[in-house]
Amino acid sequence: xxxxxxxxxxxxxxxxxxxxxxxxxxxxxxxxxxxxxxxxxxxxxxxxxxxxxxxxxxxxxxxxxxxxxxxxxxxxxxxxxxxxxxxxxxxxxxxxxxxxxxxxxxxxxxxxxxxxxxxxxxxxxxxxxxxxxxxxxxxxxxxxxxxxxxxxxxxxxxxxxxxxxxxxxxxxxxxxxxxxxxxxxxxxxxxxxxxxxxxxxxxxxxxxxxxxxxxxxxxxxxxxxxxxxxxxxxxxxxxxxxxxxxxxxxxxxxxxxxxxxxxxxxxxxxxxxxxxxxxxxxxxxxxxxxxxxxxxxxxxxxxxxxxxxxxxxxxxxxxxxxxxxxxxxxxxxxxxxxxxxxxxxxxxxxxxxxxxxxxxxxxxxxxxxxxxxxxxxxxxxxxxxxxxxxxxxxxxxxxxxxxxxxxxxxxxxxxxxxxxxxxxxxxxxxxxxxxxxxxxxxxxxxxxxxxxxxxxxxxxxxxxxxxxxxxxxxxxxxxxxxxxxxxxxxxxxxxxxxxxxxxxxxxxxxxxxxxxxxxxxxxxxxxxxxxxxxxxxxxxxxxxxxxxxxxxxxxxxxxxxxxxxxxxxxxxxxxxxxxxxxxxxxxxxxxxxxxxxxxxxxxxxxxxxxxxxxxxxxxxxxxxxxxxxxxxxxxxxxxxxxxxxxxxxxxxxxxxxxxxxxxxxxxxxxxxxxxxxxxxxxxxxxxxx
Length: 689
Description:
Helices cover about 75% and strands about 0% of the residues.
């Protein structure tokens, strides 16, 4: 398959995202069916607000069964925690309205702070614990004796919805997270092969950038699915161990392919065979149907290429004018082959049945994640202040419908606070809510009062909810569609005796819409979020990781560094992925930092080799100290320090001494670090991006 055909295929695949697939239809019909079952059960149990059971189904609905179970599990925990908090706060402060709303606002701030430090779905559970206390506690204002009944009713309605959603997602044509991990990893490998094929043949830059972005995003999804698979089936846990290492190897292979593309090799006899074999392999891998059904032949070929690339070429071979440059490119090519080989082995490990538990030496290292404490504090203050201000307006004006506004401000300002662009996400939520209003009015205020009964309810509601669920399955429309589905049911408020009563309907709807708009205003005015500030903190953490690699007495395991590095890149991705060239430069620097870190580890290991001359060992130590200083103290726009020049000087000196073997590999590592830092100078500098 030629590169233009690959480009056309890639563009066509993106355009086809809007077409519902078979799995989308299964998801939509399964979700709507679960919602109807939950509503019928709520009617049978005579719950006070049966719409919450059906709403919960759409709130936790996900295409993958494990994701439904995870979101439902943490929604249940969040609801229970919020209910207990509501009971405690209302019991302690229920007699004083100002103290009550202040305590609830502080609780929302605390939960928002915790949510901002966690990852999905744990973050969702923490945010839910905050605003659930408001949802339960505010209606009990002036009637604290009702708070326990309200908490129990809310928990019962939500548990019912979670059970219905979880059972249908697991029993009716389920799409399992364990299967989805294997499927997505196979797609990542084929995308990586396509990217490498384009990189090795000098393909279109824009298309390569798109594939690069897609690959990094897919690694993020793989990491999330790992947790979902373990919740979905605990028996999958032993097979989930290779996922983290495989993701690190994916990033390493991607970084090596990008480096070979950015620094195209001169035509010489030493490089041409290795490069040609790699290009032929990845092109065949990307084009051959069912190529990943059996990886043994690919692993064997990659192993042979890696061994060949690591062999020192004969001095008589034409290597061009830059011998170290040739060795450097051969080293990067070998790294690519080795990383791709390990990814294929990771795929086999996921597909193979587990016959024994991994030994102590094979356990994956604990992942040290980046916690953005300044950003979390900002989100907490914003959610608490917004909730308190609107609650103060409600208490001052005594407008009964403003209670709904207070609740919506708490929900939106807490739930969307940690998003890279909370204003955009909240605006999508507002659009979905506004779109749901006329549909809910026609069905709830016009049709159902005239034609009561569950049969008529299904006739009117199902044709609306199925397209909404189809849109929820599409990543482009999931936010607006989910808001539409949830708020359509909230506006509709289905119960067994529907009556025409437009006054409360419009008053309640207006309070919800006003609450969302006020929350958007808070995001714009109160401590507005700047994704670049959060990205800068992550980039600074990545530079500090590299500096620690240079200076720390103990040399960490490669797998430990890769686990940390992929987590940093995954956190960086959503912050910069829609920022044009500036974002691409930051993301490219993040992936390149993986390569720099691995080369630092090689230099650290080389220092422990007794065959290396002592003056070379001392030079490596001096270089690593200088590199750490550059990573920690140089700012963008400043002239680069002597670190890069020293790296090239050391590498050239090794070549002039006609060294072979380990010494030339040291020279190659120095050149790779210098090239990466020259490609992304601002990334490897201290300051805001």
